[in-house]
């Protein structure tokens, strides 16, 4: 069935319309069967015959015209044809049948405290089997496309489609300049739908949905846009959601947001899909053959006492996941987590900016160096936050009770003294992307394993920078195989209650306090907890606290390449130069707050010397204050 009636079908011949209007008396309902060709069955041939007759095709006759009056008004017109098509779909549709298309677009218009419904031709309908109106509540009981516009301060859109009759059908709500408010129930409520409810935000339109401060729906739920079944949001318009009572956009099943400018201000969770949340159409990912363009997806959410985006299903291990495929996300969670999943949290691409509470900003000091995302900070070893009234307990920017995987994108997390950047009950795998973390608690924490395979990570933490926590175990590991890490922390910069292994990439690790912790801290229960098997590691901190074990305890094929000096004093502009005077690395920064600095340099397979107060020309800036290559001019050799 066509989504919109073809224009030539809508323009039925005047003769046929007049014949249908004047030649036939009103009929009893029992006469209506759809069998217009008189063969004893109702099938597609009856629909084709009626269509020909309405178009005045020569030599077309109806054996039983009464059977075609599906609208029961004593005349034959395109409305009967549409109803006949719908009835035929109801008969033939089974769970294995192809998904039927919707029949027409109906317009629902709120104006002057009233509701008007029009069909695809703009004709006002006084009644329709699939639409019921009570006051300013419109209930949709059949699949189809419904364009909704206008303004109502006490309106509600309810989707309640019988799943046994329409097991695979969709309802599409096309928002086109809708301003809908309701203080006693959810303004948009999806009770039942066979396949999914689709909210299309029409291009160029601005739509605002607002609820009250204290209410519950009949089923005890709360949410400005609330769906008991699958919900999908798309389109290129703007959707503003003001959730004054609790959650903003909610689905008890799967929630997908593929396009649109979506703004949510919520008293509790801003966006929640119990079974799952998927942001961005996966078909647009280059890995799936798409163009990677998510410019039409911009989500901005503010949560006052909940989470920004979450999935909270715990009963089914295949549910409870959040996937971000693309788009621009601005998330502010004042007393909750930025993005939270129960099983898997995956970021494939996109720009994600998360602001979480838990004290004042973690990185408020000033330092002598400068970086692309902020400089080297004060090295006093004291807390950056003195306002306990703003500390609301631990919150996390990117959180999963299971695993976290980052395959790409730009992810920024900022938080206060009690906030953590990433936290996972399972494994954290960082494959690619740009990540900036600036928090007052731990930067990236897993209770299982952390694996860094690529990407750029700029991290500041008031506690541990990277932490593999929980009980000591040989199964726990913090492994760096590639990528670039630029981490500053006031406690351990890299801490594992298992092993720490460097096999590739570059890590610049700086401790910002002088007592009680280490730059690289492996488990005391392991015989060789720290291994340098490749890559490049620069560790700077108190001479006594560069690592948790003696140098002799280091494992790995290239352990003898580790350069260590325990009493350098002030460090400034450090260069590592190989035996041919090629510059391997150049750290253009100063550390002068300690009486003495220690430095550990592990260049992997290459023999190198370290120089302080170095002058280097022609180096390439890799990240922040870190350079590689160039020509060594001068310096004081420290090892």
Provide an overview of this structure:
It is a single chain. Helices cover 6% and strands 42% of the residues. It is mainly beta and 639 residues long. It has a 22-stranded parallel beta barrel. α3 (44-54) runs antiparallel to α4. The protein starts with 6 loop residues before the first helix and ends with a strand. Mean pLDDT is 83; it is low at 1-31, 91-104 and 364-392.
Topology:
Elements: H1 7-10, H2 14-22, H3 44-54, H4 78-92, E1 105-111, E2 114-118, E3 131-134, E4 137-140, E5 144-152, E6 156-160, E7 171-182, E8 188-192, E9 197-201, E10 206-211, E11 225-227, E12 231-235, E13 238-243, E14 249-251, E15 254-257, E16 260-266, E17 271-273, E18 276-279, E19 297-303, E20 309-310, E21 321-324, E22 328-333, E23 339-341, E24 344-347, E25 351-356, E26 395-400, E27 403-406, E28 410-414, E29 419-424, E30 428-430, E31 434-439, E32 444-446, E33 449-452, E34 456-461, E35 466-468, E36 477-480, E37 484-489, E38 494-496, E39 499-511, E40 520-521, E41 530-541, E42 563-569, E43 571-578, E44 583-591, E45 597-602, E46 608-617, E47 620-623, E48 626-628, E49 631-637
Parallel strand pairs: 1-5, 4-6, 5-7, 6-8, 7-9, 7-10, 8-11, 9-12, 10-13, 11-14, 12-15, 13-16, 14-17, 15-18, 16-19, 17-20, 18-21, 19-22, 20-23, 21-24, 22-25, 23-26, 24-27, 25-28, 26-29, 27-30, 28-31, 29-32, 30-33, 31-34, 32-35, 33-36, 34-37, 35-38, 36-39, 37-39, 38-40, 39-41
Antiparallel strand pairs: 1-2, 3-4, 41-45, 42-45, 43-44, 43-46, 44-48, 46-49, 47-48
